[in-house]
Structures are given as C-alpha cells and as structure tokens.
Amino acid sequence: MISSKNAVISFKQKQFQFEDFCNASGLKKSSARNLISELVKINMITMDLSDIDKRKRYYTVNWKYIVDKLKHPNDDYEEIINLLDLSKYDGKHVLLKNFEVLDNNDVLMDLLLKYWDDDYDDEQVIVTIGIPKDVITFEFGLEL
User: Fold this and answer.
1) How many domains does the chain have?
2) DSSP assignment of 57-79, as one string?
3) pLDDT per residue as tens, the chain (144 positions)
4) Helices (H), the chain
5) Is residue 3 part of a domain?
6) What is the CATH number of the domain that holds 44?
C-alpha cells in the first residue's frame, strides 16, 4: 500500500491539482489538505497559482527532494524505488534525470566515464539501487 505522502511521486513531472491528489492518495479532503500543506512545508512539492484563476493551485513534485531521499535512504526508500519503477535495477548504478532512467550499469566507473564531461547537469544523479554487485579483487603473492 502506497503511503499518502508518497502518492505524489506517482505524478512525477506532471502538474497536479488537489482533486488529483485526493484520488491518488485515497484520503478525505480535510486530511489531504493538511498533508498537501505539510508536503509544501518540507519542500517535497511546490505550489503555483493559476494565471487565469488565482483560486486554482497546481502542484509539482520537487525532483531534488526525491534525489535527497534516494541518496540518504530511510523508511520511505523502498516505496520510492517501487513508485519510480527502479526495483528492476537492483544492484546496479542508475543515472537518473527528472524521474527518468537515462542509463544503468553494474560498474560505477563505466557509468561515470560515459557521462562525465564538462557540461555538468545538476538535474542528473547517479544512485545505487539496493546493494551493488561490484566485485573487489585482491592480489597477493605467496612466499615459499
């Protein structure tokens, strides 16, 4: 069951309105209103007013907040991984940009070398999903 707080992640880059959030979270309007207010306070979502009708509010998920949650796992980590459909990349290093997977690789260095250039894009992030399958080898010599 998706927590109400993480229901907003399902919107990804799309703007959504209060009614959309109520439908996605399954909350009553009063509870949803309180939760939306809390999510705006913690900067998980941003709010914009309509240019035409100032009573209409549009919400957008804050990508940087999600990146922070992926980089610093807590209780929501597994749920966020599932909502972003990243569980199929378990044990891999994944390059993400605005909720989309750009590339993935078992070897972090290969991924870094492929995308490391002078054109830094702060919307891109490399995260490791689950436990990486990197292999560390040790070389040693035997003395007889």
Assistant:
1) 1
2) EEEEE-HHHHHHHHHS--TTHHH
3) 456 667 778 888 889 999 999 988 888 999 999 999 999 999 999 999 988 888 889 999 998 888 888 888 777 788 888 888 888 999 899 999 888 899 999 888 888 888 877 676 778 888 888 776 655 555 555 555
4) 18-25, 29-41, 63-71, 77-83, 108-115
5) yes
6) 1.10.10.10
- Amino acid at residue number 127: V
- The Cα 120–Cα 130 span in angstroms is 26
> The whole model's pTM is what?
0.70
Which residues constitute the domain of residue 9?
Answer: 1-62
Q: In angstroms, rounded to a whole number, what is the distance separating the alpha carbons of residues 128 and 121? A: 18
46: in domain: yes
Q: Tell whether 125 is covered by a domain.
A: no
